[in-house]
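Why does residue order matter? Because the sequence determines the fold. Keep that principle in mind as you read this record.
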Amino acid sequence: MATFKSFEDIEAWQKARVLCDLVYKEISKPIYDKDQKLRWQMSGSSGSIMDNIAEGQGRGGNNEFKQFLWIAKGSATELRSQLYRSLDRKFISQNSFDNLSGKTNEVEKMIVGLVNYLENSDFRGTKYKST
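Structure:
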């Protein structure tokens, strides 16, 4: 059974990190000066995805990890909604929207897959290991 020594080992976190960087590059465009709150929200939700995966893994227990994974998935759903707002306001091109929305969807699926993996695992977490 695989355990994660660090959040950096988790593929969903790795992809969330790339997504966060892509979102940052998108929202750094001057068009987002028209809606600073949307820029701030997109920065926050994209960062929250990777941060909650990391925090959950760092808690050392599978139940806590799953809780934080669901929060990360919620942040990904929030980001997709914000991408639609950006598209509707013509801040983002259809191509960029499709790319970022697709990557967000991929991360969401990976998070759900990780939750399912943890639910089917007998391993309770590193804080429960006897030394």
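DSSP finds four helices and no strands in the chain.
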